[in-house]
Design a protein that fits this description.
Helix content: 40-55%
Distance between the termini: 71 Å
Strand order of the largest sheet: 1-2
Mean pLDDT: 75
Number of strands: 8
Strand content: under 5%
Structural class: mainly alpha
Largest sheet: 2 strands, antiparallel
Shape: elongated
Low-confidence stretches: 1-47, 143-211
Length: about 500
């Protein structure tokens, strides 16, 4: 059974013999078709679930109508009475929902959401039309003489009333019931033959013979899993029974994400259009992917909704603890090519993974290709690893990085467009000792002045001083002195300084 008020049953109109004035009903009650609020403790426990759902949906529909009236006439004295009536209707709907779904069901928020959904189907102007038509009907019932017997054919006066009222409502009523059908029921009263507009507008369409006995609501409560579940879903879809908002709500309520995964995989529901509450106490809605990340749902579900078009830009949380689908995929060691495709499609990048900067996390796991992609798409390479700059750490760890990143070029192709990874680095970023990449390089065993000059040409400042007030050149001379056992000859030092100036000049021309 669906608990969402997709369509309410016809509202019972007041008896033709009942006087509007004598009934003591307000204009709001007239507009709502004479609805009465029935306390839940007066409903028999033996009533079937269908009857409880009918009463609950009736209350929700009426609460929505009242809300529209209150918005239109917020300054009227009668608004207080309408608000009280709306409160009673919502309370009744909540109680009935708990009887249907169980005492622990989070019914209050759901009912309010259902009222808002029902409001979206109407408008203040249409509600006013219904009020006027119902009031006109009540006046006619009071002042036009009524028959004193149970004759099947109404007297002339009543036929005139039927024509007048019918002229007001036929455009709406004929959407559900044609004129010949109205005339073919002479045993019914004029009020029953001529459907009021509110009744015609929200009445359920004629039922067609069901091709399957399965319902989405029943499937949610079933123990079926795997292939059996897939077969049941296929049966529903082939029968033309597509899930509605209420069914998605039930899937979420019962945590049947295996069902949600299949209907998304089959293209029945688009994942970007599903919004869920993060918890029972939270009225705010979040995208399906954000919910799945927050609640650490399984890889199969996550990959399915990603492949079917979920919003990859969602971020759960904020700051250094924020989570994204890319961060979760990296932690779970998904295929690098899949992660790359997500990043290229605009997936949000996490700042950190388990407290470690994204680029450092990838570098330590030796996922260098993925690290380059992340850098091109905005992940900061200006970080420190073990107190060193990223580039300094790389060229100290492995000579191949010198050839690739400094003497050569690391290019990443994004849709056939080349991106130079090194251009994303701040080459004058500093490490824990206030040093730049040149300082880091001269702490290594290598002393290739070609690399030294190339880094200067690329833009590294050779005159930058670390916390010990040492420049990179000073460290270079210290290193050379240690290797040679004496100071660098003055003539060679002057040659090196001239080469440094030439490297600076080449940098300026680029």
């Amino acid at each position: 059974m669906s608990r969402f008020p997709v369509s309410a049953p016809p509202l019972r109109s007041p008896s033709p013999l009942q006087s509007c004035e004598g009934s003591g009903r307000s204009t709001a009650e007239i507009a709502l078709g004479g609805a009465n609020v029935i306390p839940h403790d007066q409903i028999s426990a033996s009533q079937p679930e269908e009857e409880l759902i009918r009463r609950r949906d009736h209350a929700i529909s009426n609460a929505a109508q009242l809300t529209l009236l209150i918005r239109a006439f917020s300054d009227q004295p009668e608004c207080d009475k309408w608000r009280a009536m709306r409160k009673r209707l919502i309370s009744q709907a909540v109680d009935l929902t708990r009887r249907i779904e169980g005492p622990d069901d989070d019914a209050k928020v759901w009912v309010k959401t259902a009222v808002r959904a029902k409001m979206a189907e109407g408008s203040p102007s249409r509600t006013l039309e219904k009020m006027a038509e119902s009031a006109l009907q009540a006046i006619m019932e009071k002042y036009v003489p009524q028959p004193q017997d149970e004759a099947s054919t109404p007297p002339e006066s009543n036929r005139e009333i039927a024509e007048v009222v019918q002229e007001q409502v036929v455009p709406q009523a004929q959407t559900e019931l044609s004129q010949p059908e109205i005339e073919s029921k002479p045993s019914e009263s004029v009020q029953e033959q001529v459907t009021p507009p509110l009744r015609a507008e929200i009445a359920a369409p004629p039922e067609t013979e069901a091709k399957t006995e399965i319902t989405w609501h029943g499937l949610v409560r079933s123990p079926e899993r795997g292939e059996e579940l897939a077969a049941r879903i296929d049966e529903l879809i082939s029968s033309g029974i597509r899930p509605h908002a209420a069914d998605i709500t039930a899937v979420h309520h019962h945590q049947r994400f295996d069902i949600m995964e299949q209907i998304i995989a089959k293209g029945i529901v688009h994942p970007a259009k599903v919004m869920l509450r993060a918890s029972a106490d939270d009225e705010a809605l979040m995208p399906l992917l954000a919910y799945a990340i927050k609640h650490d749902l399984g890889d199969s579900f996550l990959r399915t909704i990603v492949e079917k078009g979920a919003d990859l830009g969602v971020i759960v949380g904020s700051g250094e603890t924020a989570q994204t689908i890319v961060g979760l995929a990296i932690k779970r060691e998904w295929d690098e090519e899949f992660i790359r495709r997500m990043i290229e499609c605009g997936a949000a990048l996490p700042e950190r993974i388990d407290g470690v900067a994204l680029v450092e996390h990838l570098y330590r796991r030796k996922q260098i290709k993925l690290m380059n992609i992340a850098i091109v798409f905005g992940a900061s390479p200006n970080i420190t690893i073990d107190g060193k700059t990223l580039l300094g750490k790389m060229i100290l760890d492995h000579p191949k990085f010198i050839n690739e990143y400094i003497l050569g070029k690391v290019i990443v192709l994004i849709r056939d467009v080349p991106y130079d990874v090194l251009s994303k680095f701040d080459l004058n970023a500093t490490g824990g000792n206030g040093q730049n990449v040149l300082h880091d390089y001269f702490e290594s065993k290598a002393l290739d002045d070609g690399v030294f000059l190339k880094l200067i040409e690329l833009g590294v400042n050779p005159d930058h001083r670390n916390k010990q007030n040492k420049t990179p050149l000073g460290l270079f001379l210290d290193r050379a002195r240690t290797l040679l056992g004496k100071n660098v000859p003055r003539q060679e030092l002057r040659l090196l300084q001239r080469e440094i100036e030439k490297a600076k000049a080449r940098r300026g021309k680029k």
